[in-house]
Design a protein that fits this description.
Blueprint lengths: L2 H9 L16 H9 L9 H8 L23 E6 L2 E5 L5 E5 L7 E4 L5 H7 L15 H7 L8 E5 L2 H19 L1 H25 L4 E5 L3 E2 L2 E2 L3 H21 L5 E4 L8 H6 L4 E3 L8 H8 L4 E6 L1 H6 L2 H16 L2 E5 L9 H15 L5
Parallel strand pairs: 5-6, 6-9, 9-10, 10-11, 11-12
Antiparallel strand pairs: 1-2, 2-3, 3-4, 7-8
């Protein structure tokens, strides 16, 4: 059974020879630590680590090389630099402070999107007809994907997450209440862009899944009201997933941290059916399966805290997840990027035990 067959059969709740061997990736600080603990220095990136450790590479699985977001990218410039910190003009009208030595997200001092006038300046960068959204040799690339033994996906994007990044949590929250028509217009612009790109791309090549990114929850629930989520986002998801379904794409994977429990019903109605990375301390994976059965597909769910504790805690965590692994519709991996509190030897132990667990004992 090849990689492509395993991917589909797992998500169809069918018998497989083994489950795909994916991991979410690693913080830069984790790789730096592992270099001091035996990881070869030339193994520098997430992709390098996955190849070196023999993983099948969820974080770098094949995705169509098409652009579904802001395009072309606007050049940023450094305003000020001192020691470990750098002040950056993002090119879109925003200014952020970044720390060079860590993987922490930048801290915005000024967000680029505050008013409708700001939106009018950015809106042309979401035009589906802008040259460059597809590579110049697109026909050749599409043809190369028609015979393959591994899954191929298309990255769609984010309705809330992208706008939140441009506006800040406070900015988009206020906009939902003060100017909901503007929020709807921005989301419709994204939907129209995605549908145009999807139709052009999937006429040329069949893909196996679509990915979405919506970091819109924290450890106690969503950052917006469920009512706004249901009103503004669910129908727009459905509009896009209906188009994907026309081209045979029925696996829609959403990446959202935190406690996603209250959003899952809306995602399922909107056609987004695979939840990832299922942070164990926030979301109860068994509750999702109990409530939604085989309608919901699952990826992630291995508590990173078990790896930090190490040893027997890892064994117990895999044992905790065994019933759901055996039921199917689930691909396990650590529930976020592996943190630097995990030693290299502990991670190797985890991989060994996980591979025995999923049936990949020969690595």
């Amino acid at each position: 059974m090849n990689h492509l067959e395993r991917f589909h059969k797992v998500f169809q709740f069918k018998e497989v020879d083994r489950v795909p061997d994916y991991e979410f990736g690693y913080w830069n600080e984790t790789i730096d630590r592992w270099h001091r603990e035996g990881l070869p220095l030339e193994v520098k990136t997430n992709r390098d680590v996955e190849l070196y450790l023999g993983l099948e590479g969820w974080d770098y699985i094949d995705m169509l090389p098409v652009v579904t977001g802001l395009w072309p990218p606007l050049p940023s410039r450094i305003i000020k630099e001192e020691k470990d910190r750098v002040l950056v003009d993002d090119g879109m009208g925003g200014v952020y402070l970044a720390t060079k030595s860590t993987s922490s997200p930048p801290h915005y001092i000024k967000y680029p999107l505050k008013t409708r006038d700001d939106w009018e300046k950015l809106k042309p960068f979401f035009d589906p007809n802008t040259p460059g959204r597809f590579p110049l040799n697109w026909d050749e690339i599409a043809a190369s994907y028609r015979e393959r033994e591994a899954p191929l996906g298309i990255s769609i994007g984010s309705l809330y997450g992208w706008l939140r990044n441009l506006m800040g949590v406070q900015g988009i929250s206020i906009a939902f209440y003060r100017d909901p028509d503007w929020v709807a217009e921005m989301m419709d612009t994204l939907v129209n862009l995605w549908i145009a790109v999807i139709r052009k791309a999937l006429r040329a090549v069949k893909v196996d899944f679509a990915t979405w990114w919506e970091d819109m929850c924290y450890n106690r629930g969503p950052l917006i009201s469920v009512r706004h989520f249901e009103e503004f986002m669910v129908p727009r998801y459905k509009k896009v997933t209906d188009v994907l379904k026309e081209y045979g794409v029925t696996i829609n994977i959403v990446d959202c941290d935190g406690d996603i429990t209250r959003l899952v019903p809306g995602w399922l109605r909107g056609g987004i059916n695979c939840m990832f990375p299922l942070e164990a301390r926030c979301t109860d994976i068994y509750r999702l399966r109990d409530e939604y059965g085989h309608r919901v597909l699952l990826m992630g769910g291995v508590d990173k805290m078990a790896l930090i504790a190490g040893g027997n805690s890892i064994d117990k965590e895999l044992e905790r997840l065994t019933p759901i692994l055996e039921e199917g519709g689930y691909i396990p991996m650590v529930d976020h990027r592996c943190p630097p509190e995990v030693s290299y030897q502990t991670y190797l132990y985890y991989l060994k035990k996980k591979r025995e667990w999923i049936g990949r004992c020969y690595i």
